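Hi F.,

I've been meaning to write this up properly since the lab meeting, where we talked about keeping a consistent format for the predictions we share between groups. The idea is simple: the sequence comes first, exactly as it goes in, then the structure tokens exactly as they come out, then a line or two of notes. No screenshots and no reformatting. I'm using this chain as the first example so we have something concrete to point to.
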Amino acid sequence: MPKSIQTIEIEGLSIPIIHTDVLVVGTGAASLSCAIHLNRLGCKDILIVTDNSKGGTSRNTGSDKQTYYRLNDSSTVADSPYEMANTYLEGGSMHGDIALVESMVSLRAFYNLIALGVPFPHNTYGGYTGYKTDHDPHSRGTSIGPYTSNSMVEKLWEEVNRRGIPYLDHNSVVRLLVDENNTMLGALVQDTVHLENQSMGFSLALANHVVFGVGGPAGFYASSVYPRVHSGGIGLALEIGAEAANLTESQFGLASTKVRWNLSGSYQQVLPRYYSTDQDGNDEQDFLSSYFNDWEELTGAIFLKGYQWPFNSSNLEYHGSSLIDLLVYHEIFVKKRRVFLDFLNNPTGQIGWPPFSVDVVDATALSYLQNSNAWKERPIERLDILNPKAIELYENLGIDVWSEPLEISLCAQHNNGGLAADIWWESTSVKHLYPVGEVNGSHGVKRPGGSALNSGQVGSIRAATRIMGYSNHGPIDVLHFVEQVKSQVRDIVSLAKNWVEHAVSHGTRIEQAKSYLEQIRLAFRQRMSTAAGPIRSLEKVRRAITQANTPESSIPLDASIPLMMLPQALKLRHMLIAQHYYLFAVEHYLANGGGSRGGYVVSDESGKAVHPQLDMYRVQPENEKLREKIQIVVDDGHGSPVGHFINCRPVPTQEFWFERMWTEFREETFFEPTV
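Output, unedited:
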């Protein structure tokens, strides 16, 4: 830990004070990148804080071929930042100027990673050849395999260490701190290892600027493919009045559950068998084929599930690929069965269909497999040729897909919404707060696969540039900052002391507190999966909001929390705060006529059934007018969320005349807003 120059006495605790120019929260790919860019631009006073330097989604997630999305500069097909921006905007509910920034800066961000040693593949002539990913017309995707983001994090960490940028590991942010003008002043953090000291692990980290890279709402859902070592921290920013954008827009996809991993791409393209069992693993049923008319429809849908991996409400009709997601959801959450993906056996057809063979497979799927020299008798053999690393990945995680199936579910995977920020990734309502990575709500309803990695790297460059464009980089007036934040620190410290004192007076054991917090957490996650998952309704979300407001759904002031359980309780506290905003956002969207779009369908008894055999799934169509709007949710000043819609800004059309731009650059007037 950096040396503390003094302490502050609050509630009988002696809390160390540390200070820095820029406090970087989190150690995902976006946070680390921002710290590096800040250092390159001349900032030497940076401190990174993280609750787990080995945790986070960037380091611990992936798929069969994890994609990085960027402008294509290695193809015979012409591409441009404006075309890329328009691709982003096709998903709806995204600002055009932000789409243009993510496109304009994508190559700078991409080649920075290459310079750091991330081994993206190139051809004989040095071109970084791409491929088409979902919602992508220009083959802008590239990959280094299942662990693209992991490799990014490793190389970024090497650069952070090479530059000597200091960091505090095992330190959780428990409260963001602001002044009376809602400008960032730093954070209250807690050392989760050294709790038994005179400050209960608390320290006060004061800063002029806070880079906030806490990831998405990873711990919010009962059915989730986010890594277990990550939970998210957006509630910390919502608590201090940071505006949120498009919180309703989450992505869901098929993933294994024993080991959390996305089952996209090759895992589907080799045409595996889907089957379900009862809870004891008996009564095997091949449930897919009864919803399809023939082999061509069935194998075509399974194959397309590889390209169209996220659940997409527009891919349900006409036996589309997302019908498979819905059928898996139906088996698990309605019929209460377990679902498995089997690579040892081919899919099973209906009675009367011919046997599975090369002669009955969908033409597109067959052409792909044959052109890849991957047509073999069984799915596992096809996968071994098409993508052996996809098999190796599970072997390294203790699962042999050569001998056992994968249990799967329809899981929360990414939140396209998050905190609202401007084109410099600075919060729209809290000055000097910079949400980077998934916690930034820059995406619209649908986004090209891999664009989240690009957005995180672009955002880190923009935030670093904006921070260094400000003039407040002198020494911090510690006494003034402390006076501004004292009451905010006291609120959390008082709460923590009350919990611990009640635990002592009641003789509460750690196991009891752990069970108590787990009950709250499980109920919270179930509410989110039920009301804010892929199948939504106004009735469901209003019921969930009522449940979330009951005393049993919170941690009261007089709860008994032993000292060693404080970090878990304080983390759950800000997750419960965030839950209210997410549920409110869904309720507000539906109450304003929002229908099925992106990663979810909205139930409506008067709507059209998605399949003749699934009459219970009648859906409300999308309100297409809302594609031109972005939903904003923010604290009303009294701890409750309020919402409204704003118009999407268009792609900027002004001419970028070089001489004028050069002058703006020299004088740094380009920071001034253009809208």
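Notes:
The first helix runs from residue 29 to 40.
The radius of gyration is 25 Å.

If this format works for you, I'll send the rest the same way.

G.
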